[in-house]
Task: structure prediction
Amino acid sequence: MAGPADAGPAGTGPRRRRRWGRALAETAITILVVVLLAGLVRAFAFQTFWIPSSSMVPTLGVYDRVLVQKAFFTWRDVREGDIVVFSHPPLDHCGGPQGGDLVKRVIALPGQTIYSSGNSIYVNGRLLAEPYLPHNDPLGPPIPDASSQHPYRVPPGEFYMLGDNRAISCDSRYWRPIKGSSIIGKVVLVWWHDNHPDFRRF
Result:
């Protein structure tokens, strides 16, 4: 006759399998929730982008990685000097890939006037302070184009964009200001620069 000690291991086997099944299900649900939350964060809160060209040198180098704020941010929050990511302008005929998003710096806001004299830029008649650029950085093409005799006024709801590498950047001098509705988000952090981790906030 089997005693109580003999019945114990056989009786606990199903319970152990049930506990193992519950643990496995809980782990799977946890992983699923984490993946869903990561997807929501990427879609609505923050997103990482990489820099494909040298148009934002020296601030951002080629292949730098940046974190872009998308949540709680609209184009009405954009300020002069912000670095933003936006959809490819339809009037871009500079060559290179026509798809994908661009990263540039906001220079003039809706309704402001902008023009250049030599390498200096004037917004609403005042000299634009640009501590993020090297001293005497060459501007390249003027603002507006050389045929214009008057400052350029940025249309309502649009933003005048320039790359920090002014001499070679394809920006609003070529494809005019961008619509605010095309702005995806604001660059808030560089986390990879010059092929190594480098955390800088903006």
Observations:
- The longest strand covers residues 183-193.
- The chain has two helices and twelve strands.
- Residues 110 and 156 are 5 Å apart (CA to CA).
- Residues 4-45 form the longest helix (42 residues).
